[in-house]
Amino acid sequence: MPGRLDVRLLGPVAVYRDGDLLALRGGKGKALLALLALRAGEVVSADSLVEALWGEIPPPTARTGLQMQISKLRKLLSAADGGLETRSPGYVLAVDPEQIDVLRFDDAVAEAREASAGGDAARARSLLERALAEWRGEPLDGIDAPGLDEAVFTDLISRRTAARVAMVEAELTLGEHREAVPTLERLMGDEPLDERIHALAATALYRSGRQADALEVLARLRRILSEELGIEPGPAIVDLEERILRHDADLELPVDDAAEPALAMREGRKTITALACRLDAAKTDGGALDPEARGSVTAGITELVHGVFAAHGAVSFDVPGELLGAVFGVPQVHEDDVERAIEVAIQLLELGTDGDDTSQVRLDMRVGIATGEVLVEEAGATERLLSAGPAARPARRVRRTGAARSRSWSDRPARERSSSRTPPPSAPPRSPARNPPSSWCYPRARCPR
To answer: Rounded distance, CA 129 to CA 122, Å?
Structure first.
């Protein structure tokens, strides 16, 4: 029974049969497959293939080279459902459109447009998510086709951009303006002169309560248009700027429309960074403290640690086993989530550097960090973790850690210590080369005598 092909062009060019990657080697072979797949079901002339593969002035051996590549591709596809056919004046890739990622992408986008026109923004968003999932990188990556018109690449990229814009429009219709902001920031970077994208970004920011940022987006667009093209933005941008300045009520979603997504729950996966730390107190001679004394040592530090989490944009979460945990990436993922987690660990470490050797009690802290995918439940701008995933891994590592590197510290009166305490900075200097220890002793807790 013939296998089912899956031709992938939206990223590194490849072909699969029943899920197995076929050995399509060489830039010319990948380019030939791409040229035929882009026009699947149509006759592609041998002359146009030669020109695309070797340029306007092909070598004398170009025709022979084309025949060799055709023979290799035909053999590769011979055991598949559909294949390469010869039809004058060229060749046809006779496969189901569903077997080519570009055509699957186009079909899903077309369905999304119909759903959006019919007022079903939720279905439109779902279809666009499916369409954009076909992309694995830059289109037609790995082909050797010096004569291929550059417009082929730009057309594919523009179709991806249009799908992303349509996705943002669906999200804004559903009241998910905060979720749309990261995508819009990337789109503005890719298309710095696109007025429609900047208008959507300003609208999303305004609805997120960030009026100043919304105005800055439009001001930046105005500067770029003036400096690069010598023109002013169109009337739509000018009108939007004025409406933001006067807090036009029409910029907000109607209450009924905005409230509906909060009731629509959906599950999804996202990458987060999790940090867990363990506070423990013991006598400097290794003996255990009674529970009351131990609690008095750790209570004040717990509140301070939560403050450090919040200052770096982390969300605290409960970890079994007397651990303190924080998640970076919920409800919004940032590119520097890992750096933030490392900064928190460094800051916690740097807090405990002013002790002495006269105390009978020490406070030990162990810190662990992990990054990975988790399952979340989304409702509008809120998210709830459904699976522990990486959030549990640093906790396990912290529990397995051996004896902490500890410091003893003075049992000065609490009022003296609190007056000398320096609040931690909100963003400590980054130290990428530093390797913080897995455990440390915090010297500012209140020590029982």
So the answer is: 11
Give CA–CA dist 363/417, Å, rounded.
15
Tokens 């569903």 identify what position? 98
- Which residue in 415, 409, 405, 413 sits closest to 444, CA to CA? 409
**CB contact at 8 A, 363 and 295:** no
- β-pair type (323-328, 266-283): antiparallel
E strand map for 30-82: 44-45
Using DSSP, state whether 110 is helix, strand or coil. Answer: helix
* Average pLDDT value for residue range 34-46: 93
Domains of the chain: 1-167 (1.10.10.10), 175-264 (1.25.40.10), 267-441 (3.30.70)
What is the band of 109 on the pLDDT scale with cuts at 50, 70, 90? very high
- What 3-state class would DSSP assign to 328? strand
Confidence of residue 422 (pLDDT cuts 50, 70, 90): very low
Could you tell me if 271 and 371 are in contact, meaning their C-beta atoms sit under 8 angstroms apart? Answer: yes
Label the pairing between strands 14-17 and 5-8: antiparallel
- Going by C-alpha positions, the residue among 30, 103, 143, 35 that lies closest to residue 21 is 30
ω before 89 within 30° of 0 (cis)? yes
Q: How far apart are CA 19 and CA 388, in angstroms?
A: 30
Are 166 and 189 contacting, i.e. CB atoms less than 8 angstroms apart?
A: no
pTM metric for this prediction: 0.56
